[in-house]
Amino acid sequence: MAHWGQLMFQDAASPIMIQLVALHDHALTIMIMVVSLVLYMLYSILTNKFTCRTLLEAQEIETIWTVLPATILVVLALPSLRLLYLMDEISQPTLTVKTIGHQWYWSYEYSDFLNLEFDSYMLPTEELQDGEFRLLEVDHRMVIPMQTEVRLLVTAADVIHSWCVPSLGIKLDGIPGRLNQTTLSINRPGIFYGQCSEMCGANHSFMPIALEVIDHPSFTQWVMTFSE
Amino acid sequence: MALAKPQLRGLLKSRLKTHFVLGLLFCSTTTGSFYFGVRKPRERKYKEFYRNLDTQKEFVRLRDAGVFHSVRPGGKVGSGW
């Protein structure tokens, strides 16, 4: 989850998010290079007292400052496109979870099992226990097994919502009448938080997402409680 | 005693040559600082974290700390859904 004074991304918990962080660093490197060069040139121009009365054209520098930016853009675009297509890959998910956005809560359906569906409302501040996070905790967390490819289908029942968990690098709009699909694969156990990311009414800020990632035997036990 | 002849022409050109080199040096310094000071350490930290991570041990630690709702400390299944 986010912490006070945070500037960069949350710690990555999925392979895609690790790649996104690396791409962001790559883009930032290029940006720092360009901005520092431009700032230096600006300083140089502002402190210059000389001029050249006979300057008409300069073919060499024109070539350089056309080819160099084009090369920089290619160096920026190739890793970006690679990751864009990687994010759309779906191999063999072992589990499918449907997430439905409502005003103002999420509901989760695990159609691979019987009778496994529940609503997930935000816990009001007055009901929080010690150590729980304000505006992030929910009554029923979405539970998934770790290191497993999970297909996530997101939709909505009323207005557009958006299912977002920053540490997994996922943000998927839930649009009524449409199913948006992505895959989740979480590297490590823990609780991962997110919030609705599409304006959906008065309580848009009060419909968080909490994902509980556990090991396979515990997940199986948890699923069995629904058939009892 | 004669003084050395000062440069009378091409002052802009020679200034540009100097500042071009200085600009490249400045740009390389800032980029290199970010690359070796931020980017590479972050990459290394992620690699080391995942190389040393024992996910099952981490899961048991978190479970026994009472963090999860679906599974309670000691492996008992949680309830309330």
From TrEMBL, chain A:
Cofactor binding summary note: Binds a copper A center.
Keyword presence, Magnesium: yes
Residue stretches making up the Cytochrome oxidase subunit II transmembrane region profile domain: 1-91
Alphabetical list of InterPro entries matching this protein: CcO_II (IPR045187), CcO_II-like_C (IPR002429), CcO_II_C (IPR034210), Copper_CuA (IPR001505), Cupredoxin (IPR008972), Cyt_c_oxidase_su2 (IPR014222), Cyt_c_oxidase_su2_TM_dom (IPR011759), Cyt_c_oxidase_su2_TM_sf (IPR036257)
Catalytic activity: 4 Fe(II)-[cytochrome c] + O2 + 8 H(+)(in) = 4 Fe(III)-[cytochrome c] + 2 H2O + 4 H(+)(out)
Cofactor or coenzyme needed: Cu cation
Compartments in which it is found: Mitochondrion inner membrane
Chief location: mitochondrion
GO BP: ATP synthesis coupled electron transport
GO molecular-function term, one example from the UniProt record: cytochrome-c oxidase activity
Origin: domain of life: Eukaryota
One Pfam family from the record: COX2
Domain Cytochrome oxidase subunit II copper A binding: 92-225
Spans traversing the lipid bilayer: 21-43, 63-85
Topology term for the membrane: Multi-pass membrane protein
Keywords, alphabetical: Copper, Electron transport, Magnesium, Membrane, Metal-binding, Mitochondrion, Mitochondrion inner membrane, Respiratory chain, Translocase, Transmembrane, Transmembrane helix, Transport
Gene Ontology, cellular component aspect: mitochondrial inner membrane
PANTHER family on file: CYTOCHROME C OXIDASE SUBUNIT 2, CYTOCHROME C OXIDASE, SUBUNIT II
Family in the record: Belongs to the cytochrome c oxidase subunit 2 family.
Function: Component of the cytochrome c oxidase, the last enzyme in the mitochondrial electron transport chain which drives oxidative phosphorylation. The respiratory chain contains 3 multisubunit complexes succinate dehydrogenase (complex II, CII), ubiquinol-cytochrome c oxidoreductase (cytochrome b-c1 complex, complex III, CIII) and cytochrome c oxidase (complex IV, CIV), that cooperate to transfer electrons derived from NADH and succinate to molecular oxygen, creating an electrochemical gradient over the inner membrane that drives transmembrane transport and the ATP synthase.
Protein name: Cytochrome c oxidase subunit 2
Automatic annotation (TrEMBL), chain B:
Protein location: Mitochondrion inner membrane
Family: Belongs to the cytochrome c oxidase subunit 6c family.
Pathway note: Energy metabolism; oxidative phosphorylation
Superkingdom of this protein's organism: Eukaryota
InterPro entries per UniProt: Cytochrome_c_oxidase_VIc (IPR051389), Cytochrome_c_oxidase_VIc/VIIs (IPR034884), Cytochrome_c_oxidase_VIc_sf (IPR037169)
Primary location class: mitochondrion
Gene Ontology cellular-component terms listed: mitochondrial inner membrane
Keywords noted in UniProt: Membrane, Mitochondrion, Mitochondrion inner membrane, Transmembrane, Transmembrane helix
Transmembrane residue ranges: 20-38
Record lineage: Eukaryota, Metazoa, Spiralia, Lophotrochozoa, Annelida
Membrane protein topology class: Single-pass membrane protein
Record carries keyword Cell division: no
Protein name: Mitochondrial cytochrome c oxidase subunit VIc/VIIs domain-containing protein
The UniProt record lists the keyword Mitochondrion: yes
